[in-house]
Amino acid sequence: MRDLDQRISRSDFVRGVVILPALAGLLVAGITVAEAKGSQAQFKYQTKPNGTKKCSNCSLFIPGKTATATGTCKVVDGTISPNGYCIAWAAKSS
Questions:
Q1: Which of 9, 52, 71, 80 would disulfide-bridge 63, Cβ 3.0–4.6 Å?
Q2: Domain definitions of the chain by residue range
Q3: What is the distance between the alpha carbons of residues 46 and 72, in angstroms, rounded to a whole number?
Q4: What pLDDT score was predicted for residue 4?
Q5: 54 near 82, Cβ under 8 Å?
């Protein structure tokens, strides 16, 4: 039997209403969650570093053919400068 004392929180309800249909839409479109990248504007991407934080020392950066060539990112769409920076920056593990 169902326990009448259990209640769904508002945040659980909103997550279910918003996230599940969005994921279903990605599946219908043939795109996996891993392939869905955010825009450069969404991640506040800039072509200059933030102190010592730059794309070339970020774990999400996929370098180009040379150290100075543009590359790509696992979460940000488009070409990415090795000297760029965004709010998704995460230090490479040693």
A1: 71
A2: 6-36, 37-94
A3: 14
A4: 46
A5: yes
